[in-house]
Design goal:
Chain lengths: ~550, ~180
């Protein structure tokens, strides 16, 4: 089930995308990225290609548009006026590859610092070439045009720097706000403080070695990233994983979703001044960590999946321990809700605050609970079901206002739905192996490694050369805790990817944040940020 | 009014004779105020350190500050990129003396498995570090272990020595 990559000439690409949006209902721009074909076997055409990944409004179909960029000019026309999401998408391509998007309102670096020279994802940039940053930029180059556009003089507003080291921005997001009294008249967001070169690291590691890196994308739900990544490689190679592995992936994946939502809502309560909720919600989470560390060997960074299946089978008593976690989770949700659900202060601080409309969310590429809270029932688990999600009985949770309150309540309710899924999956889980027996993918059993020369060679080749993925380009996605988590992989046929691009759901949500908080109060901006669950490992990669 | 008997006049157990250092160190080490510079996954694990199961307040260090000016223990929990480096240094410089630094996790200690163009290969290239914790992320118990070692260390210090020797000699790549 390979998705097709449509190649369009660089003169036509803007037109094609506009047409796809207006006439073919491809309303969501999932990601923009580029590929550097330097040293790609058999490649003769231009060096760089830019890739646009679009999704239609039913979430059932996606289309990949690829265009080769002229070697001389390295320029394409922007599509940031067609999709809001393209603004940050194109900035990242510019930052990492040096492709210029003509007509982009603010084409500057987004992940690397402003003193950085060169473009790190180009194949001729040496991975270990670090560049020291001595000072932080003042961001006035972004703020001045914004103020002008709003009709303010610089001395009429108070400029307030929030972050990156600020309790509300959780360590890695920086906002520059122009304030008039308590109201925000203009805002810009700067990220990149936790950029750790995920994509570049992928190009120097074998497919299996990348799995630990995926843990650290959204580290609140590491297993969901493991699953998303391994699933894309499996899809790319057309491998079916055993049924048992599918069910276990569903169970631990949903458990991770519960913990991710728990962290988000607990932290949001802290930001609202409700510390007690934090204690309530964190207790079952620690219990879940115990289960996961028994199962996978690690509390947080699990690296539980393998290409083709899983690393370990369930231990005896797993089902009972999970059930106990689920019960404590239900209790903690009840406890937390009993403190806030009818609490006037809580309602006043969250209702009609930080509103996102459905239309804006789609244009900005916001997916997952943040999109569902606007009333749009889009969930990859239902719209493009994988691992038998369509056979489980669960509801897609939607909100109605798209405000902070809805986002929190959607997350609480999704935790309850995940509990339902886990209970059903545990009942249905079949016996069998947990990893495919395809020896081109999975390591042989240890008795064969030590007992036969074939087994030993098999192990040796898989470890040293990696899993050989057929040449080609592929995009595959799953519903992670924050929304659609996609991986776009380019393989040159070897055991190391030519390129891996992660489509991080909260990168695009964060790109929209400065727009969402415009004309709101400062204190509301804080809870709005907390309710959208920005995970630095994911948006900065 | 009757005069008290002789033993009533003695001060009994109500006076303690000690060294000033001991008294000050006792107070300092059992009421550390941490400033958590949590940037990544290790920062999430620090949340578990603070939450009720592991409960950092058992060690008297639960007053987590977000302002460096109110803290004496800097916990760097997470990867530090070159972009983040000047900010970390500024935070450290803003903390009043005496201060201690815990480097939590492989990333803060050495860059971890991010040996690449964007990651500082250990925060001790920027600021002096007192305790390193291995792990990716370390378990909460490992954090407490290093906290206890910081307490022991601060118990051995003297208030007469204003700036500690290794801090004075320290030169990172941002102290050009
Ligand atoms: S040491 Fe590991 S867990 Fe900690 S920040 Fe680095 S990658 Fe994350």
């Amino acid at each position: 089930m390979h998705n097709k990559v449509y190649e369009v000439s660089h003169e036509k690409v803007r037109e094609t995308i506009l047409n796809l949006k207006e006439n073919e209902d491809f309303t969501l721009l999932l990601d923009v990225t580029a590929t550097d074909y330097l040293n790609y076997p058999g490649h003769k055409a231009e060096r760089f290609a830019v890739v646009y990944i679009l999704r239609d409004s039913t979430f059932k179909n996606e289309v990949i548009i690829k265009t080769m960029v002229d070697d001389e000019t390295l320029t394409l026309l922007t599509i940031s006026d067609i999709y809001y999401a393209a603004n940050w998408g194109e900035r990242e391509v510019f930052d990492q590859y040096g492709i210029i998007f003509e007509g982009h309102p603010n084409l500057k670096r987004v992940l690397n610092h402003h003193q950085f020279v060169g473009h790190p994802l180009r194949k001729d940039y040496v991975i270990t070439d670090g560049q020291i940053c001595t000072e932080t930029e003042d961001l006035m180059d972004e703020m001045r045009p914004l103020l002008k556009q709003k009709g303010y003089e610089e001395d009429e507003v108070m400029l307030l720097n929030v972050g990156p080291s600020h309790p509300a921005t959780h360590g890695t997001i920086r906002n520059l706000l122009a304030m008039e009294g308590e109201s925000i008249v203009a805002a810009t967001t700067e990220i990149g403080y936790l950029h750790r070169g995920f994509e570049k690291a992928c190009e120097t590691h074998t497919y299996s070695q990348i799995i630990p890196y995926t843990d650290r994308l959204n580290y609140c739900s590491a297993i969901l990233n493991n699953i998303g990544y391994c699933k894309s490689i499996e899809d790319m190679m057309d491998i079916e994983i055993p049924e048992r592995a599918k069910f276990i992936r569903v169970i631990v994946g949903e458990l991770s979703r519960i913990m991710d939502h728990a962290v988000c809502n607990a932290a949001n309560c802290v930001d609202l001044g409700g510390l007690t909720n934090f204690w309530y919600i964190f207790n079952p989470r620690d219990e879940a960590y115990e289960v996961l560390s028994k199962l996978t060997g690690a509390r947080l960074t699990n690296s539980y999946t393998r290409i083709g299946g899983l690393s370990y089978d369930l231990y005896d008593g797993f089902a009972e321990e999970v059930e106990s976690v689920l019960r404590s989770t239900e209790k903690s949700i009840d406890d937390a809700l009993s403190l806030i659900a009818r609490n006037k202060i809580f309602l006043d601080r969250t209702q009609d605050v930080g509103i996102i409309t459905e239309e804006f969310a789609i244009s900005a590429g916001i997916t997952g609970p943040n999109l569902r809270s606007t009333g749009s029932p889009r969930d990859m688990r239902q719209d493009k079901p994988y691992y038998h999600y369509d056979s489980f009985d669960f509801d897609v949770v939607v909100g109605s206002h798209g405000d902070v309150y809805d986002r929190m309540m959607v997350r609480f309710e999704e935790m309850i739905q995940s509990i339902r899924i886990i209970r059903q999956a545990i009942k249905q889980i079949p016996d069998g192996s947990i990893i495919t027996d395809n020896r081109a993918v999975a390591l042989p059993p240890k008795d064969q490694v030590y007992g036969s020369i074939e087994g030993m060679m098999n192990q040796f080749k898989l470890v040293f050369e990696g899993v050989k993925v057929p040449k080609g380009e592929y995009y595959s996605s799953t519903e992670a805790a924050n929304g659609e988590l996609g991986f776009y992989v380019v393989s040159d046929g070897s055991g190391t990817p030519h390129k891996v691009k992660c489509r991080p759901p909260c990168y695009y949500a964060l790109g929209a944040y400065s727009k969402i908080i415009e004309n709101t109060m400062l204190a509301d901006a804080v809870v709005t940020m907390a309710s959208m669950n920005f995970i630095a490992g994911e948006f900065d990669r | 009014m009757e005069l008290k008997k002789e033993e009533d006049l003695s001060l009994g157990d109500s006076v303690l004779v000690t060294k000033l250092d001991t008294a000050v160190n006792w107070a300092r080490s059992y009421s550390m105020w941490p400033m958590v510079f949590g940037t990544a996954c290790c920062g999430i694990e620090f949340m578990s350190v603070a939450a009720s199961k592991h409960d950092i307040s058992r060690f008297g260090a639960e007053v987590v500050r977000f302002s460096p000016r109110q803290a004496d223990l800097l916990v760097v929990a997470g990867t530090i990129s070159y972009k983040q480096a000047p900010i970390l240094k500024k935070i450290y410089d803003q903390m009043p003396e005496p201060k201690w630094v815990i480097s939590m996790g492989a990333c803060a200690c050495s860059g971890g498995f991010y040996d690449n163009y964007t990651t500082v290969q250990g925060i001790d290239q920027i600021i002096p570090v007192d305790e390193y914790i291995a792990g990716c992320p370390p378990r909460p118990e490992a954090f407490f272990d290093s906290l206890i070692r910081i307490q022991e260390k601060s118990n051995r210090e003297s208030i007469l020595e204003k700036d500690r020797q290794h801090d004075r000699d320290f030169k990172g790549f941002l102290d050009a």
